[in-house]
Records
---
Amino acid sequence: MTTTDSLFCGRLKIIQKKKGYRFSVDAAILAQYIRLRAADIAVDLGTGCGIIPLILSLKTSPAHIFGIEIQKDLAGLASRNVRLNHLESMITIVHGDMKDFKSYLTPGTVDVVFSNPPYRKVLSGRINPEAERAVARHEIKACLLDIVTVAESLLKPSGRFVVIYPAERTVDLVLHMRTSRLEPKRLRFIHPKQCSGAILVVAEGTKHGNPGLSVEPPLVIYKPEGGYTDEARKMIAE
């Protein structure tokens, strides 16, 4: 069973499963940090229902976005969402394992790779009994190193990798990026409230980039009295 929701003042429609994987605010936040130019080729590693490519279609008109999804049902859902929003000329959904990308993409030809990957290690925390959610949340089909390695292989020199990840795993993220020659260039930490610790981090790296990291002011999601902050509302609700 699915639901069809309108987003961004009705400019997007998205079909999601009523039970199973549903996109979260993480995806909407990440989309705001992905900068695409008109001629860019971009790849979403683990596209889920296709939400990030769909949001990006509102911001710019890149040459093309490929959304890769290993779960068959989610890949089918993402394809339906592309058709529902008449974006077939801009977005292609690929059902497959990102580690087998050479069967459908050429290494070193992509301008931007982005991902909202599974956050938890397999032995960390309770694994959801719902298989679709489990694969989306735990590193069952792909781990962080897999994602960073694939991103580096796909990108052109000076291509960009953008990712959202738990703040508590920032060291792992930065280490894997640098080891894979994706030099971290921007970090921004995300806090639920002004007085709360960071829960997420958005990172951008450049393939073969020079050292030099900019840590941007934090993003606070909720006001003390409740409701989104103005900045978060613009990212998530508009």
Note: The longest strand covers residues 155-166.
---
Amino acid sequence: MMMMRSYLKRTLSAPQYLLHSRFSHTPNPSMSTLSSSTFRHHYTTHDSSCRFDDENNITKRVDLEIISIGSIKPAYPTPNHLRTFNLSIIDQMFFDSNTPTILFLPNTDNTSVSDVIATRSGRLKESLSELLTQYYPFAGEIVDIFSIDCNDKGVYFVEARVNQTLQEFLHQPDDQKLKELIPKHPSITTESSLGNFVISVQVNVFNCGGIGLCTSLSHKIFDGTTYFTFMKAWATAARSGSSQIIPPCLVASDIFPNNPFIKQWPSKLWHTKLPCTKRFVFDSMALASLKAQPVAPALRGPTRTEVTAAVVWKAAAKAATTVRRFSPDSPHALFTFVNLRKRASPPLPTELIGNVISAGNAICFPNKQPDLVTMIDEVRKSISKLDSGYVESLKREKGHETFIGFQKIINDLIEVMNEENCLFATSLLNTGIYEMDFGWGKPIWFYHMNPGCSRIVSLNEVKKGGGVEAVVSLSSEEMEIFESDPEVLSYATVNPSPLRFLN
């Protein structure tokens, strides 16, 4: 307890933690904190492996101590004329969920743990407060599917100590263990972000001084590109000062205005039973073999996203047919989310904030046993339709008609398809995530956690070697079949330690 009190004293009294508004003589701390005694926890998690054997039915303990809880507010108050931030029609349509992500940052210069907490965590808070003056919607509150109230509610911010070294933690991480590093708040769930913080942060400090920087983000305004734009700006502000950041572009709702008469995607496609999540790493040799498949002629060869998504989709569809009845005409769908910014003509700014994405829709009939080449071709065709003409059709008022048509396609598909017979794919490749630097070293691992869907694959970069980490979530019954699929195992390694890919 004495150790914890010293952390609390150091955490709560250091000047850099209590930033005051420069517009007022009245103290307006950028971080408010709660009673220390309330938040001393030790969390115990159980392995939810989908293998049904005794050696995996073990208890795993994450010894985690909460040091402080509060909120980080913008360094400058948001002006009244910017109080309402309108969401775009794509934001409006998108699933309402919170997506956790985590960056693991090493302690490359052996700074003491106490200095990491006092200095580095303090710098994260100070730079975040400065950053929020430009990214002010992220410090607000989502009112409904159409707007954010930019009321300077702030970013929910937690500091924690993990009683392990970073190397020990990453030796064999699993999804349940990683979830213990997510910021927890009574009103924050993966199911809904309405009325909650747009962003929640937990700075997890390991015994070696390494940091697990976990963010939980509202998908009502965050797509993958928005996440990386924000995190790169935060890293720049922490390392070099906020004057060096590229300002966000906050005009998505002008390009893609929302429409109160269009409903968002059916939630039953997204929220289902508790998923089982595992990682499958495809190395560069496996990807080269997949990209050399004799696919249909095109202007370019298949991408890492296309071939990896096809392998996962094929095996997931096969697993689904084992668990549920499929007739010869029963479809299985793949929805591949694609960043539209670069597909527009001229391209939209990378810094354009919001969901600037759409989904390619591919169909297969598992009982007809399509081969891998066919699956790759289907994925490619679905993505190729999302071209500059498609992006143009989404803009301004004409976009409302496009979305109504897209909604009809989804509804028609649901009528002939069990809602569990689909897979969502999202790619976070080619983002430069491992080049991000907060001032004390680049990340050694990035992990994108499940936002609450039991049928999703997230494709992430491997730190070195050009590989792809596919984070796959399925029902436990389907995962047991999927992880034993011979084709998957011929290309991918299951749940390897991220430490294998550092050199």
Note: The chain is about 30% helix and 20% strand.
---
Amino acid sequence: MSRRLSGRPASGFGLVELMIAMTLGLILILGVSHIFIAGKQSFVLQQHTAALQENARFVLSRISRDLRQAGMFGCLDMSRLPAATRSQLPVEFAAPVSFSSSVLKVISAVPVHDRITASGTRQATDYGAQWLLATNCLDELRIASGNTSLAVEPGDLLIPIRQIEYRLDQHRLQTRLNDSGNFEVLIDEVAGFDLQFGLAATAADRTVDGNYVTTVAAADSERIRSIRIALNFSDNPANTSAGQVRLQQYTLVTALRNRLD
């Protein structure tokens, strides 16, 4: 007796079907991985951009605050002092704001004044300052610098004066106080740091006349009305075109001592 074989095809997966399924699965896994990696890279770039923006906000607010105080010596009006008294002033006081070789120097009073009630001595370093002035806010002035002791009398008002420096060095914005010690790093990834000055036509005018300039002579310091600060940031400051984050450019204009109308 013989049996007939069934004409139905064999059921299940063959080798071809298995290979196709594995290929499709691999493509799906690669697609999901690509989406995940792209999302992670986008998140990292957004975080880096936000960090650059925060650095810009911090530095611009700090520098603009120091610039607004430039040339302020408390109650003392240097222009009203007798010529013999003015001759005692350090030469740095003639230009309370200067910018040369990518170094910004700002001279201003420390916001802590001391009214003397008993005779004694004081030093500028006692107040974290570079110079110490003792004055009656009218026509008397005595001055000492650094660790030099200054004799003080009852009725004197002490005005500590400090010098703050900012400079760009190897794409790092650095600062130093009172022209001593090493510069300390504030922020990294700085591609550019520049200042321009808005000058009035005369020392009596209150509005900026003409275009901003890059340099100001000490004799023209009284004509400075505003300062334009420009900062550029990049995750690759040495070659901004090769950076992953687009070059971040920030500009801030600061008025000095409320000189503008």
Note: The radius of gyration is 33 Å.
